Request: fold
Amino acid sequence: MSKLPALNINLADLPYDDALALAKEAENAGFQSTSVPEFIRDSLTYLAAMAVATDRIQLVSNVATWTRTPVNMARACRDVDLISKGRLVLGLGSMPGVWNRDFHGIDPQRPASRMREYVELLRLLWASDQNTPVDYQGEFYQVRGYRMFEPPPRPHLPIMIGASRPGMLRTAGEIADGVLFNWNFTLDFLRDVARPAIAEGAAKSGRTLDDLWLDAGRPIVFTDDKERAEEAVRWWRYAAAAIFMGIDYHQELLIQHGFEEEVTAAREAIAANDFEGVVAAVSDEMADTFLIRGSPEECLERVAEFDGLVDSFFLWSTTVALTGADKVKETRRLIEIFGDAL
Reply:
């Protein structure tokens, strides 16, 4: 079998006690990191709990959003980093524009410029102590005379940016320590569009792609059973319809990937307030592209295709069954099979 990238396990949609136990199992199996997406949990709160349950595995917010003020984010990151003894990796994201407006009252315009300011101010706050107050006057954020009461847990907090479009990819390459991709990226897009854009940004800060950490992933289902495979695709259609088909920049990505017909059908269904129509717009070809399913050997080979394009690969079970016990069982199998292949 081909070489695998380093592995990252997503445990956020599992029952709390089981998620902590599985984080420890993933650590023992050789996984590099575990991640918590913000749209399911409060990522930093959940990672703090995982920090207590583990000893070595990196803890990645994938992604925390800028709904926290930079001051609140810096304080929260310091606490999680203290609890974990230096294992936090802050993954930041801008969120879809409609979430910014409708859920948090944030103007979603010019996200790359806002992200640049957010990261710049966050790094100043991270490094602050009683003797180094932070004064910052930006377009989006202003802080006057803020002091932390103790030095930072370590000199540098790794910050990765969740990016989809070339503008944010270039910004991430310039100002961040890495990039977090969602699961709706094709191999060709990673190779021909994303990596060159990140490299362009990295060059502005005197760096190369080798200086950044890139992370991508996919949902995964182990199955040789036709009925179970069809159930997995059915679950995935609903997830894709609910999360991605109605978001502008995800629509743009899907069109770039060759799924313009599906996006057009989804837009028509959304205009008609027909969610089942949005689900129906998710094609078999999309499932074949973005959902990894099959025997363990087939799934391992699909993940190995990403080696050389990204440094780590986040994976999670689509958990076809609905009960918590079955979700735990499927995720444990995922950890065991991939851990044995490391």
